Amino acid sequence: MQLLGVDSDKEPEEIAHPDFRWVAPDGAMIKIDQVRALNAFAVQTPQMAKRKVAAVFDAHLLNVNAANTLLKTLEEPPRNTHILLCTPYWSRLLPTIRSRCQYLQVSADTQQAQDWLQTQGVAFSEERFAQAGYAPITMLEQFAELDLDILLDEIARAQQLGPHVDQFIDMGTSRILGGWYRLLIQRQQDQADRASLAFADELNETRRMIETSNSTNVRLALERLFHLWQQLTAHQQRQRQTNR
Which strand ranges, in their side-by-side order, compose the sheet holding 81-86? Predict the structure, then answer.
């Protein structure tokens, strides 16, 4: 809201200002009618502020028609108009949209999160925080008691994968796969391992299919992912033994 010169402690979607528009998914996606309304707003003259601001929340959920409609405005943006596309999944935006945007990654305030979690009685660790998507409330509510390391070690050694598939589904497949992916990426920050990064890409693609396609067989997708995980961990164990 600083762009509009507004000082408010309200959430963006709660702010009523003639020069501000908040666009969020309508159900599972952002639809073309929402973008048409945004485009109409973009060409208007500011009423109170010196500029206009539109924020698109979860922009990766723009459907194809909506994204293409927004592209026309991004190609020739009106003067004094800022369009903010907010998403944790930058790569899911159309390449044509990404090429017309300035990219800014917002870093988590780890110390502030750590202090708050400690007041809630939650032990803090960098890996647990990464698993929770660097979101303190998510860590408190969903990852405080979940030791993903133990779960993944059990999967690596399991003879029967069915119970672990059931466990993932019961806990929320997308949520657990997201935590798993972030854990792998967090571990690769110091020393990247090509095989682990390739598996992380496979994991993220599996999560994307489960989230976006009704035709995906979740059980088969998880079983395949678990088999790949067993192969990766066995390969890493052999490498460690060779290097001793």
Answer: 20-23, 52-57, 81-86
pLDDT class for 191, splitting at 50, 70, 90?
A: low
Containing structural domain, residue 56: 2-98
Residue 119 belongs to a domain: no
pLDDT in tens, 5-21: 777 666 766 778 889 99
Work out the pLDDT band at 108, boundaries 50, 70, 90. Answer: low
Q: What are the tokens at 68?
A: 């293409």
Q: Which pLDDT score is estimated for 1?
A: 61
Residues 168, 92, single domain; the answer is no
H or E element at residue 21: strand 20-23
For CA atoms 227, 175, 104, 186, give the dihedral sign: negative
Distance CA 224, CA 242 (A): 27
pTM: 0.53
Taking residues 71-87, what's their average pLDDT?
90
Percent of the chain with pLDDT over 70: 93
**Are 157 and 235 in a shared domain?**
yes
The CATH number assigned to the domain holding 184 equals: 1.20.272
Task: Say if 80 falls within a structural domain.
Answer: yes
Place of tokens 């903010």: 84
| Domain CATH number, residue 69 | 3.40.50.300
What's the total number of domains in the chain? 2
Please check whether residue 143 is in contact with residue 132, taking contact to mean a CB–CB distance below 8 angstroms: yes
Which tokens is 207 given?
């999560």
Residues 91 and 157 in one domain: no
